[in-house]
Every structure is written in structure tokens, then in C-alpha cells.
User: Which sequence fits this backbone?
């Protein structure tokens, strides 16, 4: 029993389901990129860290191409919990991506505004290809169509935490994904 269990209304994706889906996504990416000599995985901080670690390990296990890891931190400002689509880079890539096959490793696609901006930004840096693997997507929340080639789970528009997803920097370490009780974030 974790300190967080009392704050979770219900579990929607178990630890086992997360592991299985991560392995499935890694197999898909490995098959699609079997003919390339390497991938550059770009983790969108902070939420995608758990997924990035597990996904990159699985990619190696299933015989995917060698993968280098990069990290970016971006912030979009809006009212409350909604994205404005105005993006600020808090941490940029540490290397040139020109000519590389880039896979953006994203935790969740919500409105699509930030991811849409990020894809244009990466494409402007002359990557050979840019695709997205997102573990979660909230279909009802999408405002901008974004080409997400690999999606793990479609989830409800409720407030979810766990496996990297947070509320006020808490709950990222929760090993499953759950719906946060409203009284926790409405205090």
C-alpha cells in the first residue's frame, strides 16, 4: 500500500497492462524501423521519463535499432489545466538532429497544441523523419489533429496520475495509472 492509494478514485491501467503495452509498442517501432541504423528517442520531460526508460529497454530486447536518448522540456501556458499552445522551451536538445530518425516519446496527448508545435520545431531542424509514440491519448480533449503514429491507450478526459503523470509534481512514481479524486486537486 502506497502513500498515494487513498487519493486515487480508481485504477484504470494496471502495472501489468502498462508493461504489456510498452512491449507491444516497442515491437511495432522495431518492425517499422528495422532497416535503419539508429533512432534518436526524444523524451518530453517530465511526464514521459518512466515510459522512456521502459520503452527504450524494450526496444533493445525486441531487436530494435540502436537508440540514443535525448531530452526536452517544454511548457505551454494557459488558464488552469489547459494548454494555450504558446510553447516555451525550458530544455532544448543537446545535439544536432539533422539526418536522424527521431521518435518523440510522449506520455500523454491531450489538446495536441504543445505536441503540434514540438513536431514543427523538430522538423525544422532537418530530422530525416519524426514520429511520435505516446502511451496515452485523450481523444475527446484533442483540439489540433496531431500525427501520432503509435498510441498505447485511449483514456477518459478525467484527471489521471501515475507512471509519470503528475498533479503538482506528485504521483509520478505511482506504478499504475489512476483517476485522482477531485477533492485532492480542488482543495
Assistant:
Amino acid at each position: 500500500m502506497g502513500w498515494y492509494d487513498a487519493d486515487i478514485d480508481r485504477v484504470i491501467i494496471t502495472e501489468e497492462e502498462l508493461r504489456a503495452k510498452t512491449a507491444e509498442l516497442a515491437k511495432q517501432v522495431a518492425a517499422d524501423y528495422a532497416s535503419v541504423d539508429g533512432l534518436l528517442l526524444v523524451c518530453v520531460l517530465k511526464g514521459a521519463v518512466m515510459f522512456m526508460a521502459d520503452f527504450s529497454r524494450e526496444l533493445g530486447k525486441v531487436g530494435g535499432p540502436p537508440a540514443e536518448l535525448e531530452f526536452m522540456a517544454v511548457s505551454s501556458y494557459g488558464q488552469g489545466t489547459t494548454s494555450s499552445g504558446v510553447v516555451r522551451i525550458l530544455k532544448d536538445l543537446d545535439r544536432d538532429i539533422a539526418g536522424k530518425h527521431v521518435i518523440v516519446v510522449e506520455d500523454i496527448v491531450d489538446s495536441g497544441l504543445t505536441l503540434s508545435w514540438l513536431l514543427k520545431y523538430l522538423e525544422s531542424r532537418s530530422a530525416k523523419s519524426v514520429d511520435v509514440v505516446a502511451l496515452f491519448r485523450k481523444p475527446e480533449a484533442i483540439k489540433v489533429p496531431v500525427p501520432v503514429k503509435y498510441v498505447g491507450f485511449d483514456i477518459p478526459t478525467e484527471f489521471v496520475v501515475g507512471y509519470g503523470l503528475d498533479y503538482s509534481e506528485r504521483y509520478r512514481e505511482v506504478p499504475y495509472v489512476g483517476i485522482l479524486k477531485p477533492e485532492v486537486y480542488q482543495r
User: Anything to note?
Assistant: The chain has four helices and nine strands. Strands lie at 8-13, 39-45, 67-77, 86-91, 101-109, 129-137, 150-154, 160-161, 177-180. Residues 92 and 136 are 23 Å apart (CA to CA). Helices lie at 15-32, 49-61, 113-124, 182-185.
